[in-house]
Amino acid sequence: MTTVREHAPASTAIVSTAGVALVGTLCALYIVSQFLRNTIAVIAPDLAAELDLSAVEIGLLASAFFFAFAAAQLPLGVALDRFGPRRCILVCIAVLLVGIAVFAAAETARGLIFGRILIGLGTASFLVGPITLYARWFSPDRFSTLAGIHLGIGSLGSLLATAPLAFAVAVIGWRAAFLVVAVFTLAMAIPVLALVRDDPPGAPPQRRRETLGQSVAGVLAAIRTPSMGRLFLVQLTNYSSLILLLGLWGGPYLTHVYGYDLKGRGDILLIPAITQIIGSFLWGPMDRVFGRYKPPVLIGHATTAGALLILAAFGKLPTPALIAVLAVLGLSTASTPMTMGHAKSLFPPDLIGRGMTVMNIGTMGGVFLSQTISGAIIQLFPAPQGIYPIDAYRLVFALQAVFVVLAWLAYFGAREPRRVPTAAAVPDGGTQNTRK
Description:
Structural class: mainly alpha
Shape: globular
CATH architecture: Up-down Bundle
Strand order of the largest sheet: 2-1-3
Number of helices: 20
Largest sheet: 3 strands, mixed
Helix content: over 70%
Number of strands: 3
Mean pLDDT: 82
Radius of gyration: 21 Å
CATH superfamily: MFS general substrate transporter like domains
CATH topology: Growth Hormone, Chain: A
Distance between the termini: 5 Å
């Protein structure tokens, strides 16, 4: 049996002023990432009309962000453990500013896609960088809670990418709206420089001086960690189930099937964005409620599959039922902190950065796959005047539900370390794995 002994030095108390400032700064930056990844759902009809984009191009436009984001994770994981999160975050901010400028100035589908690729690369560290910092700054039994707080506050960006974005586009246009985001991102570089440190006050640096070969070997060690494949499948299908709607096809689905305009689809998509925020705070401490990671993950994933199956079975629901299903979908897919906490418990301290980026490949890679595949599927259906039939969307929802169920079944076999209270800490203040 595997036992996890958890301990944190007194200097890393969650209530410390430095800790609160750190978390607040990183959460504000993550709002930008969540906003940018989810903007296409609301503005897709406008982009399609202005630049004559096809369904495949819209799918590629949305998924390009997630492909670039996922592709950056392995080298980013090496950089996090080798150079520290602070440097990685600052470099990513610079790349992000360039990407936003390219996207806002684009006049073709290629220009938009290139901008989205740069935006994906630029936001690649805004989750795993903070996650690595939380693992260094705070006690292990608070990790899932902090991950939930980070995802919950950051998900305000998803909320801003619904009705508020629709309002901004109507008033100043989508190009100007993106430039406003660039100004905010530039402003955020100042508190990152001033407040973010790789290690808590008084603690020794945790970076290891490794050769490139050792760094790559660490990535392979993280990938080969027992049960990582099962957790990876959950990451691949959970968040992508929400972003399939919230980040891409929600806008066209609400327009083509229900007849909503820009404001209407923004208002409806606001619902799952809100429940995802609520869910992140609710799911975060569930590992302490259950004393385990697996039960809440299984509950959340099963609920996600149920919501998708309802959409697939009925296609068009009465408005109250539609709102209820989307609300449940937002709530259930917010269980990501549990999966990340489960994965973190499997890694030794020196592999946390690389391990978390491997998991994040699943998160973003799943979105890339779901959006790319769904674009190709929807394109198969006739679309008079650019309007796709209800059966196209039903098929997309059904396939995603099947993928969720398969991942859910695989996760049953994942091993879970037995958690030992903080009082039974190991002397070095780290996380120790022992096998009996």
